[in-house]
Design brief:
The protein contains 7 helices and 5 strands, in the order βααβααβααβαβ. By secondary structure, it is of the alpha/beta class. It has a single domain, classed as 5'-nuclease (Rossmann fold, 3-Layer(aba) Sandwich). The protein starts with a strand and ends with a strand.
Length: about 140
């Protein structure tokens, strides 16, 4: 069985709006879900209510094995942000946000995992360049 990393927007969409039920059921059937340290950090940063804070804390406790970017992933992310950002004409704010997507994608590639995201637009150039599997609703 293969591995998958769920992107931050999948958790948020599911928790806050009840989205992605079918996609998550498919992922549970086809993959073993692993947790990205980048995603956990993004979730914690955005947990503004007591309920969301508890959910993120519970998810972190559940995530006994957390995959984190390596120094090499950070180095490669800088190149990807520069190249893709230049191609797309992105300003600084978009480039900063995209860096986390690069780190998630590079971590997935290193482990041979798929990325499950609702942010297909940003992950598409990463999918092509890094030859990773990206699943989107």
């Amino acid at each position: 069985m293969r591995w998958a990393i769920l992107d931050t927007n999948i958790y948020i969409g599911h928790w806050e709006l009840g989205l992605h039920e079918d996609l998550l059921a498919e992922v549970r059937r086809r993959f073993i879900v692993r947790f990205s340290a980048v995603v956990l950090s993004e979730l914690r940063r955005g947990a503004r209510t007591r309920e969301l804070h508890r959910r993120v804390e519970a998810l972190r406790r559940l995530a006994r094995e957390r995959w984190a970017p390596t120094e090499g992933d950070w180095w490669e992310a800088g190149r990807l942000v520069r190249e893709i950002g230049d191609e797309q004409g992105w300003e600084g704010g978009k480039r900063r946000d995209f860096q986390n997507d690069c780190l998630i994608a590079l971590t997935a590639r290193r482990h041979g995992a798929a990325v499950v995201t609702g942010n297909h637009g940003d992950f598409e150039p990463l999918r092509r360049r890094l030859r990773i599997v990206v699943l989107a609703p």
